[in-house]
Design a protein that fits this description.
Belongs to the FKBP-type PPIase family. Tig subfamily. Involved in protein export. Acts as a chaperone by maintaining the newly synthesized protein in an open conformation. Functions as a peptidyl-prolyl cis-trans isomerase. Its EC number is 5.2.1.8. This is Trigger factor. The protein is of the alpha+beta class and about 450 residues long. The protein contains twelve helices and eleven strands. The strands form three sheets. Strands 6, 7, 8, 9 and 10 form a five-stranded antiparallel beta sheet that branches. Strands 1-2-4-3 form a four-stranded antiparallel beta sheet. The protein has a two-stranded parallel ribbon with strand order 5-11. A hairpin with a 2-residue loop joins strand 7 and strand 8.
Length: about 450
């Protein structure tokens, strides 16, 4: 076997490989001898079929298997000997001329092919003990607990029918039936019967609820609205529509007395238990936001500390995924790059930078996990599947079966678990300091351009 490196350019390498026909013939012959005791041919006793006859019957298929196995074994040896970690699958170029292929399968010519690869660079990891990370801390105040309970009370407030002849006002709940049309033609999903609408709650498309102000029980109005440009249905997005709407019941909101009895309607023993539950929910909400802030800061630090050339093909793949998503979103919303105060060329450059960052961080996290033997157990993935199933009541079995039969879906669940475990490992080594901040500061909008 002869291996010649024909290209060594950055992370790209290419090799020309030649395997003598005699080597292939010997390997194919060994396969035929092994096949002798496994096949049954008419006219021959088991195990007594001459190898020469087997070669006539199975020679081409056995040689094809031999060539395939030889290429895989040879490539593995090439990459292992040079310490290469592949970024993508090798690209193999074989003879394509009919005469060459026939001679190769007949064992009359050497196997000659080229293999092109792209490798993962050697990554020199930083000393994580030198990292300083600030962890925001937000205390849950009594006022925030009271505010949360008020929101719960508002969502569960009672409604009572208004007096005969009364008109609907903002805040009232109006039960309606409607038929929607575009240019006089009804559309799918445009009809409803007995639908309760709280005026001002923003449940319906913009402009719909406001036109219910002043309507009376039994009254029919034609409401004219336009679907938002980013509406979920592409057929309806941006379209003007009319809804022939009849009010069948108008109810005014009542006051909810927040006491033990109210707590019991929510399945809790007392108002104190309701306050405890509200506080726990806020604590969990703040903890989740804090985790995201700390993780983002840590990823920024990893990005700054690990500058290297990432495999171009991986960057291109990541960019294409993002770019296709961006284009689809803009088309569905009717937006242009000018609306975002940029150009397509500038946007592409920005997303290429983000793709490069994501790929490099992915490789760094993978290197950290590999060197420190960080793994994700099947139990951890199983718990993630259970959580996903619980989030879709009534479809638990469907979700469970989906993940059990879909390896790629399981891998998508495993990836964030792995990433979080690596992040936790780094945080154990880093110097983490706490800083008290307000809830507003914790949730304020941040520049997401550098987010991984």
């Amino acid at each position: 076997m002869q291996v010649t490196e024909t290209l060594a350019e950055g992370l790209k390498h290419e090799f020309k490989v030649s395997v003598p026909a005699s080597d292939l013939d010997a390997k194919a012959g060994a396969k035929l001898v092994d096949l002798k005791d496994k096949v049954k041919l008419n006219g021959f006793r088991p195990g007594k079929v001459p190898v020469s006859h087997l070669k006539k019957v199975y020679g081409r298929s056995v040689m094809a298997e031999t060539i395939d196995q030889t290429i895989r074994d040879t490539n593995t040896q090439i990459f292992t000997d040079r310490g290469f970690r592949l970024a993508t699958e090798p690209k193999i170029t074989m003879p394509t001329e009919t005469k060459e292929v026939e001679e190769l399968l007949a064992g009359k010519t050497d196997l000659t092919y080229t293999v092109a690869i792209e490798v993962v660079p050697t990554i020199q990891l930083a000393d994580f003990k030198t990292f300083s990370v600030e962890k925001p801390v937000v205390e849950v105040t009594d006022a925030e607990v009271d505010e949360a309970i008020k929101r719960i009370a508002d969502q569960n407030r009672p409604y009572a029918a208004k007096a005969e002849g009364a008109k609907a006002e903002t805040g009232d709940r109006v039960t309606i039936s409607f038929k929607g049309s575009i240019d006089g033609v009804p559309f799918d999903g445009g009809t409803g019967e007995g639908i309760p609408v709280v005026i001002g709650a923003g449940q319906f498309i913009p402009g719909f609820e406001e036109q219910l102000v002043g309507i009376g029980t039994g009254e029919t109005r034609t409401l004219k609205v336009s679907f938002p440009k980013n509406y979920a249905s592409e057929k309806l997005a941006g379209q003007p529509a009319e809804f022939e709407t009849t009010a069948t019941l108008i109810e005014a909101p009542g006051e909810t007395k927040v006491d033990d009895e109210f707590a019991k309607t929510l399945g809790l023993e007392s108002i104190d238990k309701l306050k405890e539950a509200a506080r726990e929910r806020l604590v969990a909400e703040f903890a989740g936001a804090t985790r995201q802030r700390v993780k983002r800061a840590l990823l920024d630090r990893l990005d700054d500390s690990h500058k290297f050339e990432a495999p171009p093909s991986l960057i291109e793949e990541e960019f294409n995924l993002m770019w296709n998503s961006i284009k689809a979103e803009m088309e569905s919303s009717g937006k242009t790059f000018a609306d975002e105060d940029t150009t397509e060329e500038a946007a592409k450059e920005e997303y290429k930078k983000i793709a490069d960052r994501r790929v490099r961080l992915g490789l760094v996290l993978s290197e950290i996990g590999e060197k420190n033997k960080i793994t994700v157990t099947d139990d951890e993935v199983g718990r993630a599947v259970i959580e996903r199933a619980r989030s879709m009541p009534g479809r638990e079995k469907e979700v469970w079966d989906y993940y059990r039969s879909n390896a790629n879906a399981l891998a998508q669940l495993r990836a964030p678990i792995y990433e979080d475990k690596v992040v936790d490992f780094i945080l154990e080594l880093a110097n983490v300091t706490e800083k008290k901040i307000s809830r507003e500061d914790l949730f304020k909008d941040e520049d997401e351009k550098s987010a991984a």
